[in-house]
Amino acid sequence: MANARVLVSDPLAEEGLEILRAAVDVDVKTGLSEDELCKIIGDYDALLVRSGTDVNAKVIEAGKKLKFIGRAGVGVDNINVDAATRRGIIVANAPEGNTLAATEHTMAMMQSLARNIPQANASLKKKEWKRSKFMGVELNEKTLGIVGFGRIGREVAKRAQAMSMKCIAYDPFITKERAAQLGVEMMSMAELFKVADVITVHTPLIPETTHVINEKSIATMKDGVRIINCARGGIIDEKALYDAIKSGKVAGAALDVFEQEPPTESPLLTLDQVIVTPHLGASTVEAQLNVAVSVAKQCIEVLNGGSAKYVVNAPMIPPEHAEILAPYAELAEKMGRFAVQIAGGRLASVQCIYGGELSAYAGSMKFVTRLALKGLLDPILQQPVNLVNAEFVAKERGIVVSETVTEESSGFKNLITIRIKTDQGEESVSGTVFFKGRSRIVAVGGYTMDLIPEGHVLVSKHLDKPGVIGRAATILGKNTINIAGMQVGRFRPEEPALMVLNVDSDVPAAVIEEIRGLPGIFSISFARISDKKI
Question: Which of 365, 388, 367, 390 is nearest to 377 (CA)?
Fold first, then answer.
């Protein structure tokens, strides 16, 4: 991370800046235009923003050195994540830092909406006393529909239940069983819209959630429904909401976010039934400190060669599974690197098979697969390949990638098998992790092995007869190439066998050709798994 430079282009809490300044060179330049940002971003290794900076494809393309883009907050809709992924740039946010701030703001908006508090406050300050005009409703025993049952949605449910509200939720990634443990009934979005008295949305703004509350969905809702949005502008079709409030279908709305901000021309601002705040969901002293510290720490971790805790453009191991799966992820990368070098040819397809007790972690294996892809692609491509862009790079080149999870593990507690096809043939490598993280490649092309996945490796298929291995070893010795370890696998005597030699250095092409020319040698290849000697 020597001489790393970080640009902070939106206001960031001083506590976060102090963490950065202790480790890297930091420039704080806020209010930059797109052209100004593009002109200077090429000098920086990382960019930290809030919601004010539009990190579009043009900015990302200009950031030739960028390794990390951090958003001090939850949403990343102001960052072109796809463009960053293509460049292998890690994009991370700080989802936990403002969870409670957004939760409490949602609750404040819901209660204010139910009791007309902002309207009554404004009226009384004009020295009016119109109690009957501001008749409210009780939230007790009302049904709260929560669209998006992530961190904030769950915290909202917890507080609503304390007010004796019935909570229902929609989230495609949460099981009914998990929700039931929290006292919440999961249902489809269409069902939720039909039965909820109050609807609050807590989803990111993605194509699937854009205008999810629209003219058609509002028509299915209860008469007098109240709608809250403290998540992202664009989830609600604002024209449809305006029309529904004017018609009396929707009793009122509480909005912290808008499709266009500031929403100075929005007709919603003309309605007494609508209460609004200027995107204040995360605006607490505690939240701004938390997100700044979180994104600063992640930035430093990435620039030091590690990974960010809250990466949004790459799968990560859930913290509760990290101790078990991290050694397998490291092994998968080495196996991929090994397999593609001994197979040779243009890579066409990859199958990652996870067997044994690993099958219980099926939902977390995407992380392992991406590292396997990184290992496979690194030796054959000129461009940088990392955890972020490995899947995209494979897809761009037409490489078919698949994952299989099975309880079968060939007698091992856990087993990873990587099968690849190239234009020259097929290859498979299997490996496992033993006690205390001791990893081994246990099979190559169906031959049983006990290979330490490190260092430099020669792999040859040869006739299983006396003298063949000896002649190959003699050539290596003649060229001062030391053999650190040897594995031989075979099916039956005097049939083709497989020899794997760990050597202490690279093997020149001329030496490989000399061994290939020996009687009884069918094929030979060299692989560099790592620079570490065994």
Answer: 390
